[in-house]
Design goal:
single chain; alpha/beta; 4 domains; 7-stranded mixed β-sheet; 38% helix; disordered N terminus; PyrdxlP-dep_Trfase_major; transcription; TilS/TtcA_N; nucleus
Length: 1196
């Protein structure tokens, strides 16, 4: 075993001078999982070159970004990453994009990267086309990496926090230049006072001078000896990190990352500086209705204007540049959805027009066969939005509702009881469970996995409404218990205005063969008498002209969400929730609706304001308009399209609900056409019950949140002071200030004129506005003046406007009643017709309040960061090389799909060689514990095919130590269970004795999180090695790289071989099956002109390692059926390097499938034909052809 390379002597000398407690090693900064053997194994750590570990050793993957030549934006997309400053993002918009640099390349340069359906892999295009040297390019595009003075943020860090920053910056300063969304390098630079703009005499430091320092540094920043020495490419293995406090660096980075991106969002949001004209003067618009619909961001819209719209075309063609580019955008947008939600190849992602409503309607259609006579029972929670409730009523034979707990969560016991009752009453009827992941009224998050597990236990279909949850929490479609369908509205994501809805559904559930909307893009062929529709549902159900612009906007909104971090967003939302609930629970007259728990919920609050000295409330529309007029705060009033749950929260039962319907319904005798009635209303519409809802976006500062809370508290206290100034329209229920019956600030399309000099409209004068604190002080004065101006004689008696038979339904106070109270009259106010439901207090964790502004931003752990993308991607069983594009499959590319010692040695020379997690097998388990292990027994036919190959080729021998290359795909997981069963049988028969373990290589992709395999293997009680290597980062540093896929495959093979030998294992078992072998054979023949395929087994050149493929006689569909039947934890195959369209391997797969329809025995014939090629045992390329020819001759 090669010893890890040590640091230079100079570095060692310097290190020796430091105390042991101050050592910081080049290791990640989050602790290993509990019970990991590596944590306390001093000898093993020493062998890695890490030495004693002070602070915390981290074997987990950290998403880094490198300081190198690559620009912070690539063709076809705008990267929004947590490490990018607001100024850098603006610079991207203003600076000509990189594709000008490559526009002079010949058209043939891109032919190798064209895929079958036309699109180019835009995400990795810049890696293939890069021609300039790293340093040259870094210098030429340096302006994109320079931190410029950030825009002014009125809610920026306070002085106390800045003072702490000044003190921290007296230490060696750490900064990070983020030029790539996948990896970054932390460069540690020791700054002198003159460089940083720090006064030597006073020691003071101005944060705003840092940009000037960066600008003035020029080439010295990149070319200084210190900077060069600390670059990733020059680091040596086990080399100590420079003498910089890890804690200080991490705090600095987290502070910058969170603050700068969130600060940019606050400034970039369109409308953040909008001004409205109200009855009390101009007010700055404060948008607090993100739960209903989000807002646009300037940078996103500028990108669309400059990059999308100039090449906009129809997506039903790809022969023109506009059509192809638009198709590419549509496809890439869909891939962003897949990456966010963790979809696999068995899942369909469909854009569905106007939000979740269209998505549910389409889902109902897809679940029905053409006969349409299948009985269905739909089970739902009481919290459902109308979109996830009403469409099912048309389909279901019976609708059943599941109650909620006092915490607001679904009552799982009640769910089980309802499922049991349905099964007893209806037998094997189809059951659909339709649940929301988050209530749009209370913000309570539902335990999706727990509910889904119960549904699956009764063979029910699990469907989830993520409309309110998708913008703020991670989506895991293929988690421990996969969901069957989910949908969400793109317009609810920040930046996703006017974007389509999204439906994700398992393909096996789809029964419809005809599109819901028949039109262009849905048909395969049409003649005079018949039509043939497309079979691929994603194309068939997206008829008409696709909303490509909306899809791009949605994709960018998703990227922005993932840039901030899904776990970070969730924690920010929960932090805001705790803060707001703490204040609102102490606010007089404010009645919060829903459970009192503050954990596991988003800052979405529905409330009523009670009138003092009465049991009545203020009308919800009045509260909403008062917040608008006094403070510019935009809230939502009504029942928020969740009527049944809203009524339960308000305490309205079924009988009372029908009374309200009878009161507010329009008379059926009205002639609507003759009367030209546009709206549907009655004279009693204002009796409709409702409440006010407010929601806080996660990028609000705590100061903004506090200001809004103060405004709500003011309205709760002083609502009665302003009521007499407002008038209500009984036909609409709308309240308006007596001086604001006309919308004075309205924008008119009618003002637009198109002239030869351009578009002209009526100019608007934007008045100066005051901040929120000034508005609060002004509101106090206005409240006093309004209270003194009450004139009882001038206030109309609104009580007579209510029909006598509906008088008891009036639940809100009127201005005349407040005026009579103020005048001292003994008027008796009626009681309210409903009392909001009071939830009991449920025990919650006591989480300490975090004070300050940015200190309240939760810092996600490394594990959280890795899980912020739940799309789990894999290069399954290191066969990824054969999935790459045409140009990467040159002669010999598929011949060497094994491992050799040269690749292993290359891997050992990389700096992240020592990153791994080890799970050791526990010996002598008790029988009860062994029975609890989740080992599965394979089907007899499959098992026999595997054992026949093992015995014929003597793949496994006495004393072997076999490591299964566990990728998380269905093939490798199935192989693990098959070999375990074979081992058990051998032990009983006392025949072959061998050890069994597993190994996984994490390539460091932000799109891939295989860490759940660690816990899975721990439960199986096997030896398991989780190897971490920044392969994707290394690929991005490699100049002239033509295929990330091939590079990843080669590096993974090297890591597998090196790790196996390092840990003392002599056999690697890979999971390629018969379909893989057949496809590889045709790729080699078509692309390389030779007869070759993967070898059944071989020994590496140094004779230290044997590689076996026991599944070579097993079909892929058999493995898939086994994995699905046994519910193995399969991760989705969605490799980011080859995600775009069908690769060569996929095309061959389709070709073989078509031939198999004609020749059902095709693969048996191929198995016989490939046998001579399978028996090649040499690892030397020069010997393989000779052996193959000899085998063919011998077999003929």
């Amino acid at each position: 075993m090669n010893e890890p390379t040590s640091s230079s002597s100079t570095s060692n000398d310097r290190t020796k001078k430091k105390s042991e407690s101050s050592k910081c090693f080049y290791a990640f900064r989050t602790g290993l999982p509990d019970n990991s053997e590596i944590q306390g194994n001093h000898d093993l750590l020493t062998a890695y070159g890490l030495g004693p570990v002070e602070r915390a050793f981290n074997g987990t993957r950290r998403v880094k970004e490198k300081m190198s030549a690559f620009l912070p934006h690539v063709i076809g997309e705008l990267h929004l990453d947590a490490t990018k400053e607001a100024s850098s993002l603006r610079a991207l918009i203003e600076k000509p994009p990189i594709h000008k640099e490559i526009s002079n390349l010949s058209s043939s340069a891109m032919q190798g990267f064209k895929l079958s359906a036309g699109p180019v892999d835009e995400r990795y295009r810049h890696l293939f086309e890069r021609k300039q040297e790293v340093d040259v390019l870094a210098y030429s595009e340096k302006s994109n990496m320079i931190r410029i003075k950030p825009p002014y943020d009125p809610y920026g860090p306070n002085q106390k926090f800045l003072q702490k920053r000044r003190n921290d910056l007296l230490k060696p300063w750490s900064f990070r230049l983020s030029t790539d969304p996948v990896r970054s390098l932390t460069a540690h630079v020791l700054l002198s006072p003159s460089m940083t703009g720090m006064s030597e005499t006073s020691g003071s430091f101005q944060y705003t001078t840092v940009p000037h320092f960066l600008t003035n540094c020029g080439d010295s920043l990149l070319d200084s000896p210190l900077a060069k020495k600390k670059r990733m490419g020059s680091r040596k293995f086990a080399e100590n990190v420079p003498d910089v406090s890890t804690d200080d660096v991490e705090k600095s980075e987290n502070w910058n990352n969170s603050y700068e991106l969130l600060s940019w969002m606050r400034n970039d949001e369109i409308g953040s500086d909008a001004v409205m004209e109200g009855p009390f003067g101009p007010r700055k618009v404060v948008y607090c209705d993100y739960t209903a619909s989000a807002r646009s961001f300037s940078s996103i819209e500028k990108y669309i204007q400059s990059e999308v719209l100039p090449f906009y075309g129809n997506t039903h063609s790809s022969v023109t540049v506009t059509a192809e580019q638009t198709t590419l955008f549509m496809h890439e947008a869909k891939q962003e959805i897949r990456a966010m939600s963790g979809c696999g190849d068995q899942d369909s992602v469909i854009f569905t027009g106007s939000g979740s409503t269209c998505a549910v309607e389409l889902l109902v259609h897809l679940l029905q066969s053409e006969a349409g006579n299948e009985d269905v029972v739909v089970i739902h929670s009481i919290q459902e939005h109308h979109s996830n409730l009403l469409p099912w009523r048309k389909l279901a034979k019976e609708m059943r509702s599941v109650e909620e707990l006092e915490s607001g969560h679904v009552d799982l016991d009640n769910l089980k009881a309802v499922l049991k009752e349905v099964r007893e009453n209806h037998g094997d009827i189809k059951i659909i469970g339709a649940f929301c992941a988050c209530s749009n009224l209370t913000g309570v998050l539902i335990d999706v996995q727990s509910v889904t597990k119960i549904l699956k236990s009764c063979n029910a279909i699990s469907i989830w409404d993520y409309a309110s949850a998708a913008p703020y929490i991670p989506i895991t479609f293929n988690g421990e218990t996969p969901l069957d369908a989910l949908f969400f509205s793109g317009h609810k994501l920040p930046g996703g205005v006017s974007s389509p809805g999204v439906l994700i559904v398992k393909k096996y559930l789809i029964q419809a063969t005809k599109p819901k909307r028949i039109g262009g893009g849905t048909v395969f062929f049409v003649n005079d008498s018949d039509e043939w529709f497309l079979k691929e549902v994603e194309h068939r159900e997206e008829g008409g002209t696709a909303d490509a612009v909306g899809a791009v906007r949605l994709a960018m909104a998703v990227k922005m969400k993932r840039a901030v971090g899904e776990e970070t967003i969730k924690q920010l939302e929960e932090t805001i929730s705790r803060r707001v609930f703490k204040s609102f629970n102490k606010t007089n007259n404010l009645v919060l609706l829903g459970p009192s728990t503050v954990e596991g919920r988003l800052p979405v609050l529905s409330f009523l304001i009670r009138s003092p000295n009465s049991n009545l409330f203020f009308h919800h529309n009045y509260i909403s308009v008062l917040l608008n007029d006094l403070f510019g705060i935009q809230t939502r009033a009504g029942c928020m399209c969740a009527g049944p749950y809203a009524q339960k929260l308000l305490g309205i039962d079924e009988e009372l609900s029908r009374e309200f319907v009878n009161a507010i319904q329009e008379s059926p005798d009205l002639d609507r056409t003759h009367l030209r009635r546009q709206a549907e209303y009655s004279q009693q519409e204002f009796l409709r019950p409702g409440f006010t809802r407010i929601s806080f976006p996660y990028f609000f500062t705590m100061q903004q949140v506090d200001d809004i809370v103060s405004a709500v508290e003011f309205v709760a206290e002083h609502a009665s002071d302003f009521l007499h100034l407002y008038q209500v329209n009984t036909e609409t229920g709308e309240w308006h200030h007596q001086n604001q019956r006309v919308f004075h600030g309205r924008r008119w399309l009618g003002y637009i004129q198109f002239t030869p000099s351009g578009l002209k409209t009526k100019a608007k004068i934007v008045p100066d506005v005051t901040d929120m604190n000034t508005c609060l002080r002004l509101a106090q004065t206005l409240a006093l003046e309004a209270s003194q101006s009450i004139n009882l004689s001038k206030i109309p008696d609104g009580r007579v406007a209510v029909n006598e038979k509906f008088q008891r339904l009036r639940w809100f106070v009127l201005p005349i009643e407040i005026a009579e109270q103020r005048a001292g009259r003994n008027s008796q106010l009626q009681g309210t017709v409903f009392i909001p439901r009071k939830y009991s207090d449920v025990p919650v964790k006591q989480i300490p309040e975090i004070l300050g502004k940015l200190d309240e931003i939760p810092k996600p752990s490394e594990n959280d960061a890795k899980e912020e993308s739940t799309c789990q991607v894999i290069c399954d069983d290191v066969v990824c090389l054969l999935k790459c594009d045409d140009q990467s499959t040159k002669a010999g590319a598929t011949e060497n799909v094994g491992v050799d010692e040269s690749e292993a040695e290359d891997v050992k020379q990389m700096e992240d060689w020592n990153k791994r997690v080890i799970v050791k097998r526990i010996e002598n388990l008790r029988k009860e514990e062994e029975r609890k292990q989740e080992w599965q027994i394979p089907p007899l036919e499959m098992y026999k095919k595997v054992t026949d190959v093992i015995h014929q080729l003597k793949m496994i021998r006495n004393g072997d130590k076999v490591l299964v290359c566990l990728s998380g795909g269905k093939d490798s997981l199935s192989l693990l269970h098959i070999l375990r069963h074979y081992q058990q049988r051998c032990n009983k028969a006392r025949s072959t004795s061998f050890q069994l373990g597993a190994i996984t290589v994490d390539p460091g992709s932000a799109e891939f999180n295989p860490r759940p395999l660690i816990e899975y293997c721990r439960k199986l009680n096997i030896d398991y090695f989780y190897e971490e290597q920044d392969i994707i980062g290394a690929a991005m540093k490699t100049p002239g790289l033509r295929s990330i896929c091939a590079f990843c495959s080669r590096m993974k093979r090297g890591r597998l071989a090196a790790a196996a030998q390092f840990h003392g294992w002599n056999v690697l078992a890979m999971g390629q099956h018969l379909d893989d072998l057949a496809e590889s054979f045709f790729i080699a023949a078509f692309q390389n002109g030779n007869l070759s395929t993967m070898k059944a087994q071989y020994t590496t050149k140094d004779n230290q390692l044997r590689v076996i493929r026991p599944l070579i006689m097993v079909r892929e569909k058999a493995l898939r059926n086994f994995a699905e039947e046994k519910k193995l934890p399969v991760v989705a195959e969605n490799c980011p390097a080859c995600f775009n369209q069908a690769t060569e391997r996929h095309r061959i797969k389709q070709l073989l499938a078509q031939q198999e329809l004609i020749f059902p025995d095709l693969f048996n014939s191929l198995r016989s034909a490939l046998k001579p090629l399978l028996l090649v045992v040499s690892a030397h390329t020069s010997e393989m052809r000779t052996q193959a020819v000899q085998n063919i001759v011998n077999s003929s």
